[in-house]
Write a structure and sequence with these properties.
236 residues; alpha/beta; two-stranded antiparallel sheet; Helic_SF1/SF2_ATP-bd_DinG/Rad3; P-loop_NTPase; RAD3-like_helicase_DEAD; DNA helicase activity; hydrolase
C-alpha cells in the first residue's frame, strides 16, 4: 500500500509524529537522526547505491565517505604510489609553496541537488558519479563528499569510519542519537581488530631502539624512554 509515514509518494509534507522525532537539546525545532550505513568494502557501497536508485527514496539527500584513493582527482596526488593522505595535507598546508586548486572548488558541488541535477535527474549516486562531476567542475570530490554529510539523511561508508575513533574524529562523525546500520555485521570483529592494530618491521624497531638508546644515555626524559627501550629490545 501507499507509504503513510513520509512524503516519498504522496508529495505531501510528512506528519510530524513525536514518536519518530526527537527534540533538540536546546528545545529548538525537531532533530531527525541520520542513517549511517556501514559496509565492508567500497565495492559494496556501489552495489547498495545502485539498489537505492531503484527505490522510492532515490532522491533522499545522501553522501558517500571514502578515502582519497577513490576520490582524489589531483593529477599528481591521485597517480602517486606514496601516501596520498600526507601529500594532500602538504598541499593544503602549502608547505612547498603550492596549494590544491581542486580543494578551493569544493563549493561547486557542496549542494547535493546541484550534484543530482548535473546528471539530469534527481537520483542516488555513487563514488564514480561524484568523481566524474568533480573532474568536470575541477572540484575536489573527497572534501565535497564530506561537506554533503551535513545535509545528508543517509551516509554510506566503510566499517572503519564508524568503528575507529580516530577516523570518526577526523571525519567529524558523531554517532550519538543517530541510526547505524552495519551490512554483513559478522565481519565487524575482524574490522575492529584491524582498527587497533598496526604492522612494524624489525628495521623500524632497531631504528627506534637506537634513538631511545641516545635519549636514555643522555638522560633525556629517562623515566619515559627507558620503558620504551625495554619494549623495543624485547620485541627484537
Amino acid at each position: 500500500g501507499p507509504c503513510t509515514e513520509c512524503s516519498c509518494s504522496s508529495g505531501k509534507e510528512p506528519t510530524k509524529d513525536p514518536s519518530h522525532t526527537k527534540k533538540k537539546e536546546n528545545g529548538d525545532g525537531l532533530f531527525v537522526p541520520k542513517i549511517f550505513f556501514g559496509t565492508r568494502t567500497h565495492k559494496q557501497i556501489a552495489q547498495i547505491s545502485r539498489e537505492l536508485k531503484r527505490t522510492a527514496y532515490s532522491a533522499v539527500p545522501m553522501t558517500i565517505l571514502s578515502s582519497r584513493d577513490y576520490t582524489c582527482i589531483h593529477p599528481v596526488v591521485s597517480h602517486s604510489a606514496s601516501n596520498r593522505n600526507e601529500m594532500c595535507v602538504e598541499l593544503l598546508e602549502g608547505k612547498q609553496g603550492r596549494s590544491c586548486a581542486y580543494y578551493h572548488g569544493v563549493h561547486k558541488v557542496s549542494e547535493h541537488h546541484a550534484l543530482q541535477s548535473a546528471h539530469g535527474v534527481y537520483r542516488a549516486w555513487d563514488i564514480e558519479d561524484l568523481v566524474s562531476l568533480g573532474r568536470k567542475l575541477r572540484a575536489c570530490a573527497y572534501f565535497a563528499a564530506r561537506e554533503l554529510m551535513v545535509g545528508a539523511d543517509i551516509v554510506f561508508c566503510p566499517y572503519n569510519y564508524l568503528l575507529d575513533p580516530q577516523i570518526r574524529e577526523s571525519m567529524d562523525i558523531n554517532l550519538k542519537g543517530q541510526v547505524v546500520i552495519l551490512d554483513e555485521a559478522h565481519n565487524i570483529e575482524d574490522c575492529a581488530r584491524e582498527s587497533v592494530s598496526f604492522g612494524v618491521t624489525e628495521g623500524q624497531l632497531r631504528a627506534a631502539r637506537e634513538e631511545l638508546d641516545f635519549m636514555v644515555n643522555n638522560n633525556i626524559r629517562h623515566k619515559d624512554h627507558e620503558p620504551l627501550r625495554a619494549v623495543c629490545c624485547s620485541l627484537i
